């Protein structure tokens, strides 16, 4: 196991969404994925239930099936008004960034089925999701998913947090034999990345979003 020399702040600020730079031709050892998941399992969960399950897809045929669903959903998304490429059209600087994001979304959509490892985290929640506030449910899964992404970054792997396939969650569940009562929370393509490293992304100033004591 090789861990990159990243201090905590650097790890947290340079774990980026990787779409264009995923290495589609280099195999990722299952042992490396297991190491990342061992880290993920240390994340908190409500009442320590640990109701998560992790589906790691490496079979080429299975990846292609899931990838085709993701490709179709990506096409629909990019054609919609919700597309990242169409956001902030009245802000020239930010619009330029958003168009680049849209292009990278398109590239990943075309290649999802070729990514060496697809990770689908699931949570046990019964046949139907609970009504009302679901923060407790997803709060018992998503921190672990982010821990996986951080662990992957520390080991020289790139990931992308995606959810477009959830529009057809039942179809993906059928492909992967995910039993009823388990709900998918994301789809993370995982691969080595091309290029050298990553840097922090531009973000809005903290004072634009910070509220102290009152809104």
TrEMBL record:
GO terms for molecular function: oxidoreductase activity. It comes from Williamsia herbipolensis. It comes from the Bacteria. Belongs to the nitroreductase family. This is Nitroreductase family protein. The keyword Oxidoreductase applies. Gene3D superfamilies: NADH Oxidase. PANTHER family: NAD(P)H NITROREDUCTASE YDGI-RELATED (PTHR43673), NADH DEHYDROGENASE_NAD(P)H NITROREDUCTASE XCC3605-RELATED (PTHR43673:SF10). Keywords: Oxidoreductase. Residues 14-180 form the Nitroreductase domain.
């Amino acid at each position: 196991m090789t861990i990159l020399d990243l201090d905590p702040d650097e790890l947290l600020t340079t774990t980026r969404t990787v779409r264009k730079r995923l290495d589609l031709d280099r195999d990722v050892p299952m042992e490396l994925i297991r190491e990342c998941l061992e880290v993920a399992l240390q994340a908190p969960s409500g009442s320590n239930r640990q109701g998560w399950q992790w589906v790691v897809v490496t079979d080429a045929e299975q990846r292609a099936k899931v990838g085709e669903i993701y490709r179709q959903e990506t096409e629909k998304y990019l054609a919609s008004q919700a597309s990242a490429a169409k956001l902030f059209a009245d802000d020239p600087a930010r619009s330029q960034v958003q168009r680049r994001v849209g292009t990278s979304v398109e590239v990943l959509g075309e290649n999802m089925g070729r990514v060496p490892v697809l990770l689908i985290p699931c949570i046990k929640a019964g046949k139907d999701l609970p009504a009302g506030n679901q923060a407790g449910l997803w709060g018992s899964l998503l921190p672990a998913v982010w821990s996986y992404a951080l662990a992957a970054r520390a080991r020289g792997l790139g990931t992308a947090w995606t959810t477009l396939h959830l529009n057809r969650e039942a179809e993906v569940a059928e492909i992967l034999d995910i039993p009823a009562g388990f709900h998918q929370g994301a789809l993370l393509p995982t691969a080595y990345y091309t290029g050298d490293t990553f840097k922090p992304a531009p973000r809005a100033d903290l004072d634009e979003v910070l509220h102290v004591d009152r809104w």
